[in-house]
Amino acid sequence: MDETVFKDGKTEATLTFTLSEVIPEKPEEDIIYDERTFNATVTLTDNGDGTIKADVKWSVEGEAVEKPEIVNDSIPHTGDMNRWPAYLWALLCSGLGFAFVLFLNKKRKP
Known about the structure:
Number of domains: 1
Structural class: alpha+beta
Largest sheet: 4 strands, antiparallel
Radius of gyration: 34 Å
Oligomer: single chain
Distance between the termini: 104 Å
Helix content: 10-25%
Strand content: 25-35%
Strand order of the largest sheet: 1-3-4-5
Number of helices: 1
Order of helices and strands: EEEEEEH
Number of strands: 6
């Protein structure tokens, strides 16, 4: 600890810090990044016996929180949105099957 925190005989000092996620320059397309900034107010108290007590209070967007929690979310994938090839393939197969059945029926008739 930098001894200048407790200068001029003071036994208490208050420090503030901010914590936020560093979002990459090229963010992943399917991730929703947490853009909130957490604020920490740290009150240091010199106990006079060689120890220091630290009291930390966190807040985010003006509301107190117990601890910072950066939460990322992902955009759910609903599967391949281009299903036309599968539909066309199914249609082709069923059409060929139908044609084959007609062909067999024609062959059986005298």
